[in-house]
Amino acid sequence: MNLMCPARLVLLPLGGATWADQLTGERVSVVYAGAEVGGAAELAERLGAMLSVLPDAVRDLQAIADLHRGETVVVVGPEVGVDLPAVVEHTGDDWSVVSSLDANTVTLAAYEQRAESFASTIPRAPNENLIRLVDEALPAGGDVLELGSGTGRDAAELERRGHRVRRTDATLAFLEMMRADGFSADRLNALTDDYGGPYDVVFADAVFLHFTPDQLSTVLTKCAKAAPLLAFSTREGDGVEWSDRSLELPRHFRCWQEEPLRVLLAQTGWQVLQVRRGQTRSGGWLHVLAEVVDA
User: Fold this and answer.
1) 142, 143, 222, 227: which could form a disulfide with 138 (CB 3.0–4.6 Å)?
2) Which CDD domains match (predicted)?
3) With contact defined as beta carbons under 8 Å apart, do 189 and 215 qualify?
4) Which of 3.40.50.150, 1.20.58.760, 3.10.150.10, 3.30.70.100 is the CATH number of 106-292?
5) Residue 138 CA from chain centroid, whole number
6) What is the pLDDT of residues 207-244, one digit of tens each?
C-alpha cells in the first residue's frame, strides 16, 4: 500500500451490478456494501474484486480511505451529501471530488449500448400531447430543431403535419437507426454543442429529465438563442433517481414539479404559455410550451 498516494473511492447508488460497464479501466480492489448488498456481489464478481459486506461501510468512508491508500475501491449506497455516482479521492488531509462518472455521460452510455432495447420498449405512437402544442403554436408549419430524436418517431409525425425537422441526438446508435430508415440526422450534444439556427421551435421529448438543474439551465439558455419557442416534456415528481429499468444499465432521472420548473424557465429567459399533464405507465408528465421573453 502506497501511503503517499490518495485513496480513490467510487461511490455508487444501490443496484451495483449495472455499473460494471462504466468502470472499465478502473482497477478496483474491493467492493464495499452495507447490510443491503443489492447488486454489489455481482458487481464485485464482474470487476474481479473482493466483496466486503460491512454495516458501517456506507457511513465510514474515512476508515475505508485510510485502509486503501493508492488503491481504488467501490462503495455501494454510501450515506453522503453528494449526488451519486461520485468519484472522490482522499490524500490524508482532505477530500476532492473527481468527475469521471458524470451523470449525463453515464446515461448516454446506457442509451448507446441499449438503443435497440429502448426502441423495443417505448410506445410506437408519437407524443401527441407535445406535438399538438407545436401545431397550435405554428399552425402553418415551422422549422423544428429536435433535441434527442431517439428513434425518430416524433420527427416523423411532425413532418407528416407539415413541419420541417432537424433530427439530432448525442447517441450514435440512434443516429444510425434513423439513417437506416432513410432520414438525415446530426450528432448533437445538447450540453456542449452549438445548436445552429435560427429555428421556429426547439422540441425535446423526454430529454430534459436526464439533466441536473445546472445542466438544464445551460440547455434552456442555449435553446433561447436558437428559437423563440420551446416545446418539451419531462417527468413530474420530486427529486433524483437512478434506474436500470428497461435497459438494465443505469440512467439518471431528475423529476420536476411545475412551480420550480417555471422558476428555472423564467431565470433562463422563458415565459410559459401552456402546461399540460399526461400519464403513462412510468408516471406523470409535464408537457410545456414556452416562448422567449420579448421574442
Assistant:
1) 142
2) AdoMet_MTases (cd02440)
3) no
4) 3.40.50.150
5) 29
6) 999 999 999 999 999 999 999 999 999 999 998 887 87
